[in-house]
Amino acid sequence: MLHSVFPATAPSRVVVFFLDEIAAGRLKPTAKIPSERELSDSLGVSRGTVRKALDELERKGLIKRRPGSGTFVTELAPEYVSAQGAAAAVPEISPAKLMEVRIAIEPQMATHNPFFAYLLKQINLIRAQSEWGVLKKKSLTAQARAQYQEQHQQILAALKKRDAKQAQQLLLEHLWLIDQHLFRPELGGRIILSLLFSL
Length: 199
Prior knowledge:
Strand content: 5-15%
Number of helices: 10
Helix content: 55-70%
Mean pLDDT: 77
Radius of gyration: 20 Å
Structural class: mainly alpha
Largest sheet: 3 strands, antiparallel
Number of strands: 3
Shape: elongated
């Protein structure tokens, strides 16, 4: 199940190996993992491949490197692996189709409905898949990050005021901007938003 989440590159196969070890309980939180040289020898891959895999695991928060002490499995690792297993069971959904669903339902999640919470969890599981990560990495410029942060602050302020209508409007604008950055970078986000909300 876990294997379908990752592309079949050498570093990703090493990542999957670690996920399988964590899922099976052979690598527990706080456990020290072998050195790069030991992993290279035992897995039959280059040290460069091991290093790239460890970098990926560290970015995901699954391991923690402590200079002079070694590399250790984090407390969050089992929860992450469990979520990845669930994500792998989800039918393949393209980022574009996922954004359609997000735009349709996420603005309504300003309401208190446990089913929305369940749907949001499923959305986040799909977003954890590799294709979404690649798109996000390409589109997340410094300018986009600043825009997102400003929008997050505005949404939070609306929620604190208990203004559900404004929060929904702001969240919809936020999702349209993400959509524009991911799939229509040649167009200005302001143009899309102005056209949408002038209707």
